[in-house]
Amino acid sequence: MVRKLEVMKMRGQATRPGLHSYTIGRGGLEVFAYPDLRDTQSAAQSAAQSRDFRRLSLGEAGLDGMLGGGLPRGYSLLVAGPSGSGKSILSAVFLAEGARCCEACVIAAFEQHPSKSRNGRLVELIGVGKVGMIHGQPGNLSIDEFLVRLMREVHRLQASRVVIDSLSGLELALAPTFQQDFRESLLRLVTTLANAGITVLMTSELEDRYGDLRFSPYGAAFLTDAIIVQRYVEVDSRLQHMMGVVKVRASTHSDALHSFTTDDGGLRVGEIMRDQEGQLNGRPTRRRYATE
């Protein structure tokens, strides 16, 4: 159950319109009120004028090269792919690189509790406090409460990198009343983080529809500054992982599809699969070269 309140009148002063969620706990009543969408949009325009566009490494040189030299600081990156394609591993590599560069990080995990992750490096970073953690409980969270909890952790650590794994899990963690307008909630989330100058990586689960080039089931791809798509394809009766960069706003980037592998050390980008065509449909065929 989600409780909400609205301020109907305050003599001589403007009030923030709309319903605001709140909880009642041992400490009393706590209201979660963030600026409405109009306020965040105007703030985003001001923040964009002073944004630092220096490139950040994602932790893998090959992937940085595909992005045109890394991800511009303060950008939002959507990593989309089916289950098992390596999204969470890429997220862990992104956080580990931040810690290596002495940047505090925060992960909001909804797929599984990060302390139970098989990624030993991520568990270690959380244990020593270099990566802050938020873990959502299913079905009882408001988007305002999530934003407040996330930004508190960001401010506590002075974090510059945030991972949300995944958007599908976040939607399930929200109370039904907020799931109905999830697209607007995502806009508020991305804009709030952009205003704070945070570089954010979000993962999105895709169904195995290889002919369908949608990158998010919420129609939210336009909200992000960059998109990486991950797939696995059948090559010689084996599953081969591949990835490509779909967009990096206001920047050149690679348009090639690369193979990649994952292991205990993280993620390694391989060569372009030059001898295969039709990779996006999941069942590529060997390219027939013209002979003289």
Summarize the helix and strand pattern as letters: EEEHEHEEHEHEHEHHHEEEEEEE
CATH topology type: Rossmann fold
Helical stretch tally: 8
Q: Overall 3D geometry? A: elongated
Question: Compute the gyration radius: what is it?
Answer: 20 Å
Separation, N- and C-terminal Cα atoms? 72 Å
Total DSSP E strands = 16
Total tally of structural domains: 1
CATH superfamily: P-loop containing nucleotide triphosphate hydrolases
Please bin the fraction of helical residues: 25-40%
Q: Just name the CATH architecture.
A: 3-Layer(aba) Sandwich
Kindly state the mean pLDDT as a whole number?
A: 81
Q: Poorly predicted ranges (pLDDT <50, ≥5 residues)?
A: 40-45
Largest sheet: 9 strands, mixed
Lateral strand order in the biggest sheet = 8-7-9-10-6-11-12-13-14
- The structural class is alpha/beta
Q: In CATH, what is the class?
A: Alpha Beta
β-sheet strand percentage: 25-35%
Q: Can you offer a commentary on this structure?
A:
The chain has one domain (52-286): Rossmann fold, CATH 3.40.50. It has helices spanning 37-49, 61-66, 87-100, 120-127, 143-157, 167-173, 176-179, 182-195; strands spanning 3-5, 20-25, 28-32, 55-56, 71-72, 76-81, 105-109, 131-135, 161-165, 199-205, 226-235, 238-248, 258-263, 266-272, 276-277, 285-286. The protein is α/β, with parallel strands linked by helices. The protein is elongated and about 75 Å long. Helices cover 28% and strands 29% of the residues. It has a nine-stranded mixed β-sheet with strand order 8-7-9-10-6-11-12-13-14, with helices on both faces. Strands 1-2-3 form a three-stranded antiparallel β-sheet.
